[in-house]
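User: For a benchmark we're assembling, each entry needs the component sequences followed by a predicted structure for the full assembly. Here are entry 17's components. Please fill in the structure.
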Amino acid sequence: MRAFVQSVGKGAFDSVQYAGGTFTLFLRTLFWIAVPPFRARHVFEQMVKTGVDSFAISTLTSFFIGVVIAFQSAYQMMKVNADIYIPSLVSISMTREIGPILTALVVAGRVGASIAAELGSMKVTEQIDALETLAANPVKYLVAPRFIALFTMLPLLTIYADFVGMVGGYLVGVYKLGLTHSIYMKMTFEPLVLKDIFTGLFKTLVFASIICVISCFEGMRVEGGAEGVGNATTKAVVTSFILIIVSDAIFTIVFYFL
Amino acid sequence: MIEVKKVSKSFNNRLVLNEIDLTVEKGETLVIIGRSGCGKSVLLKHMIGILRPDKGDLFIDGISMASLSGKQMNQLRMRFGMLFQFAALFDSMTVGENVGFALIEHTSLSHRAISERVEESLELVGLKGIQDLKPAELSGGMKKRVALARAICMRPEFLLYDEPTTGLDPIMADAINDLINELHDKLKVTSVAVTHDMVSAYKIATRIAMMYQGRIIKIGTPDEIRNTQDPVVRQFITGSASGPITDIQFKSLEQIGGDRSS
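Assistant: Structure for entry 17:
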């Protein structure tokens, strides 16, 4: 019993410590972003790595999810002769939910893992210490450019994913389910309001912060060589996934009542 | 001058530095020797402010490091250069970008002036015309030289060497020792090196300090250390497997074994 209480207590203490560490890193990142000089070249490099290089995988996943949503909804809608609402279902679910969360999960897996592994390798080979000896702040130099890049590229990727998902739905609706082009377009955009797009994009900003802060935090506290780097990478991806899904659920509930 | 006053540091309840007192005189090369894991590198990292002591303070030319703000600490660090054990070159950058890193970050020098200084620094360590190579394309010895070029590029007053000859073949190790002596004479720097390579220690040191169990137990000129009768120092410098250092280890291992069996 005592051991159980001790283990729960230690778990709670570790969680609070982890939350404190990541939140402190988040605040330090915001502080160092505001401190000049602005490293445009570093930010641009990270934008290419996080955003441009993620376009292919984002296209693939969003397109097929659009196709799946259209087919899955057709399965139900056609039973009640409501197949005309399939385009609306695809567009609203892509912009409000699926686009943001799917893109965030893809980026967390691809970019978050890469950030944790890169920073982790830098930590174990003393490159982060070397930065400090050269009077360069590691948060300013390593975290801030990645944060700005993710903060700008994840919303752009999400808009693109929303669009590609709708294209997937369109192909199913028009070429398989027999809806006309004009009906499909009308039913896609008519029920779509700006709030749907903005709530989706707002969430991506939170997801971008989660991916960057968790991955950098895990990378920068690596200990123990290659094994440590591997563990940090796994932990960065798993923690980002959990936090993205939990925060998405919270936002969905909050936006439902707004 | 670097003064270490009553500095203590623990990691996970293990005392690594135990109220260390040490003074590095201006212009000398102090070599800190001791077994692997005895806290030599930890002490070196305190000198450049990467680690902060749990207790005690360090003074650089009389300036207390504990009282410095982040900005002041960075200004102080620019007076230092440090060579890491495994070079710690930034592998995403070229050799030129590595060597000129501090100049690019902290000065408003023109691109041309930085290139000239980078070339000059590389020449000082005997490497020329490799600015465009990536660290992955270099041998171990070349990496150490490039790291040394990066450390001296800002023309520091203090140079810290963490295991400068570890992982190098004896010829390259000797070449690095010569280079350390050459840089010391040319740049008139105050140097601190940590090593367990006694050949290197005798060759580059003005004074040698021996670290054991978190403390400095002996300090003196290379000749004084070579001729000391202190059994702990003697065992270390002669590289003997039997002696007071290993006796203590065996005793603690036996004690752990005894505790487990009872």
